[in-house]
Design brief:
It is a single chain. The chain is an all-alpha fold. It contains four helices and no strands. The N and C termini lie far apart (106 Å).
């Protein structure tokens, strides 16, 4: 075993929480290593001091004061939650009343103008329905737009 692994396991070793084989390996290492021996003695001394320290006894009436403080804090939190809930309800009610109080405005739907064909198929002018957008030989639309109103003005 190396010093790092031994020192990490020393507390469990002193509390006898390890398996027999782990205890033997740590004891073997500690007897051969001065740094780990010093660490074991330091940790053993600290555990002894802590186990012999006097137990703190609370002052008379401590439990009652603590319970009173906790109850007061609980009541204060409840009141804050009730205030927030009330504020939320009032806000929703105000929004609903505003919505209901507004005069209902009925708008006529906008009617689109009736679609009229741009070009009427008319054999007299030599225009077919598939030539509705442009006339001319330019496939990119360089020709003149022919509208239904252009029939008489060619």
């Amino acid at each position: 075993m190396n010093c790092k692994s031994v020192q990490q396991a020393l507390s469990a070793y002193l509390d006898q929480e390890l398996t027999g084989s782990e205890m033997l390996r740590i004891r073997s290492h500690v007897t051969r290593c001065a740094a780990c021996t010093a660490e074991e003695e330091s940790l053993r001394s600290l555990k002894h001091i802590l186990s012999n320290a006097p137990t703190a006894v609370p002052a008379v009436g401590f439990e009652a004061r603590l319970a009173s403080c906790l109850k007061a804090e609980y009541v204060q939190e409840k009141r804050a939650n009730i205030k927030l809930s009330t504020l939320a309800l009032v806000s929703m009610a105000a929004a609903a009343l505003t919505f209901l109080a507004l005069p209902s405005v009925q708008q006529k739907p906008i009617e689109a103008p009736k679609a009229q064909p741009l070009v009427k198929s008319d054999a007299a002018f030599g225009i077919r329905a598939d030539q509705a957008a442009f006339s001319g030989s330019d496939p990119l639309g360089g020709g003149r737009i022919i509208l239904a109103t252009d029939y008489g003005h060619r």
